[in-house]
Amino acid sequence: ETLEENASALRACLEASGVLRLASFQAQLHRQRFRRVLERYPCACCDSLEALVNTGEMMFALAKFSGSESVSSLAASSRSLCFRVGEARPRLAALKRPA
Fold first, then answer.
1. Are 50 and 74 a contacting pair, CB within 8 Å?
2. How far apart are alpha carbons 88 and 26 in whole angstroms?
């Protein structure tokens, strides 16, 4: 038996018993992986996503390349991001209109 097999079996038991929700497990796993990547490749560009997209232009660029579903999720995640998405929406809508 490997450690991976044991962890997988334990997770399945915890999920089946209702002690562990899959979404919570996946979120924690993502946080751990992200932390490990940041330790290996530190990023000092900004403190948060809000700081990164602190201008309408930056939000427009992010929204343009991430798609409308992602933009809606982004807007729902914080008031400041919602404000920036609102600033970018007219320009995004203009991209969809035929010339």
1. no
2. 31
pLDDT score recorded for residue 99:
61
| Whole-angstrom distance, CA of residue 68 vs CA of residue 92 | 9
- pLDDT mean for each 10 residues of the chain (99 residues): 93 95 90 91 78 82 83 85 87 78
pTM beyond 0.70, yes or no? no
Q: Where are the domains of the chain?
A: 3-40, 49-96
Half-sphere exposure of 82 (CA within 13 A, CB side): 4
Dihedral pair phi/psi, residue 36, rounded to 5°: -65, -40
